[in-house]
């Protein structure tokens, strides 16, 4: 007779009293040996793309108001590329394009602000007085 994985308990009360009086009985959970493989759970962790700033509003502002030599348009194009790469979970590409968009936004803002300051200076002190 082959050993069984789950032994059947007897219904006879005499054998139960003999088992109780005799040698200690093995626990039920030890008798039920189950083969359990180590389950592996795979959790895909995507990088947090909310940390990558796309400078979209700043690019829109530069494009509409301070579009100095089309730098605001270029910054807007890179800001849109950042949004696309964030949707594709390309974090490295999104960071690189965000740096480029920030560079164009800073350049466009600085050049436009310096031109506005020069206009006010020339309006206040015209060249005809010199």
UniProtKB/TrEMBL annotation:
Claim: Transmembrane is one of the keywords in the record: yes
Domain of life: Eukaryota
Cellular component terms per the entry's GO annotation: plasma membrane
Pfam families documented for this protein: CD225
Segments crossing the lipid bilayer: 55-80, 101-123
Location(s) in or outside the cell: Membrane
Record's keyword terms, sorted: Membrane, Transmembrane, Transmembrane helix
Keyword Ligase (UniProt): no
Entry similarity comment: Belongs to the CD225/Dispanin family.
Database matches in PANTHER family: INTERFERON INDUCIBLE TRANSMEMBRANE PROTEIN, INTERFERON-INDUCED TRANSMEMBRANE PROTEIN 10
Entry protein name: Interferon-induced transmembrane protein 10
Species of the source: Camelus ferus (Wild bactrian camel)
Name of the gene: IFITM10
